[in-house]
Amino acid sequence: MPKFRVMSRFSDTRQKTRETAHRLLAEGRRAHELTVDSIYAEIRQGSRTTINDELKRWRDEQSRASELAPSLPDAVSQAALAMWQVALEQGRAAFDEERTALAERTVGAEAAAAEATRHADAARAEIAELRRQLADRDGQIALLRADLGAEREAHAATRDRADTRLAAEEARRLQTERDLADERAAATDALAALQHDHAARETAFRDELGRATERLEAVQKHVLLQLAEAREATRRADADARAARDEAERAAERQRAELAAAQTRQDALAARLEAQSALLAAQTERAAGAEARADDLRERLQASLRRPAVAARPTGGTGKRGAGLRPAR
């Protein structure tokens, strides 16, 4: 949907540019002497481009006003120009309002047209979809009709086969009933023969049962006798077992007593062995002491043998006696 841009009214910068130009002109400045810098120095806002455009437009208006009334005084010309400016601004404001309203109405109309177009497109799409569905249903109906015809033909063929099969089944049923009647008659005869044979076998079985009962009673008596003998043998075996167990306990008691006595003797022998070991150790120690003393005596004897002989005296007799001495062995 196209968009319209509505022109805004004169900005505050343009309005102040015109007011400042009128004021400077009233103060005695000439129109051609007014510059962008002088206007900007007064209003201190807006862009220089906007001020330049509006100042050019104001100069053009001043030139046209001067051409229209060249003989009028300046005050009258300025007043007429101010009135013209006010009328021009009011006309522009009214034009802007009309343009804004027209743009709004145009936007509303375009929105309504777009909505109508959207609804029309949706309706056309829905119609196309309905037509497509109708075509699909027509095709489905045609297929269903074809299937129904084929189904009817198949049903007719199936019914014919079923009738044929039913007739064959009926014939087989009649034959089966006849065969069953024959089998029942044969079964009745066989049952009578079996009942007669069963009666004969039952009589023979009862006779055999009587004889078996007699044999069983004889066997029971024999078993009871053997059972009594077995109980007596068991009683004697239990008595023998108790006697053997008592004898074994007495033998075990004797063995425990002998074991205790042997342990006592072993303890005594161990004590004696320990005492003899202590005595042997003492004797060994005394022998070691005696041997040490003997070694000491031998060393002392050897030392005494190594000593020099005592010097002889000056007298002869003494010297002879001293010369005859021998070291003791």
Q: What's this, in brief?
A:
The protein is mainly alpha-helical and 329 residues long. The protein contains five helices and no strands. The longest helix has 233 residues, at 74-306.
User: What class would the helix/strand composition place it in?
Assistant: mainly alpha
Task: Tell me, rounded to a whole number, the average pLDDT.
Answer: 83
Shape: flat
Provide a count of the helices: 5
Largest sheet: none
Specify Rg, calculated over alpha carbons: 81 Å
DSSP strand content: under 5%
Please give the share of residues in helix.
over 70%
- First-residue to last-residue Cα separation: 162 Å
- Kindly state the number of beta strands: 0
Low-confidence stretches: 1-10, 316-329
Order of helices and strands: HHHHH
InterPro entries: KfrA_DNA-bd_N (IPR021104)
GO molecular function: DNA binding
Pfam families: KfrA_N
Keywords: Coiled coil, DNA-binding
Describe the structure.
One of its GO terms (molecular function) is DNA binding. This is DNA-binding protein. Keywords: Coiled coil, DNA-binding. InterPro entries: KfrA_DNA-bd_N (IPR021104). This protein has helices at about 10-25, 35-45, 50-70, 75-305, 315-325. By secondary structure, the protein is mainly α. Helix 1 (about 10-25) packs across helix 3 (about 50-70). The longest helix is centred in the middle third of the chain and has 233 residues, at about 75-305.
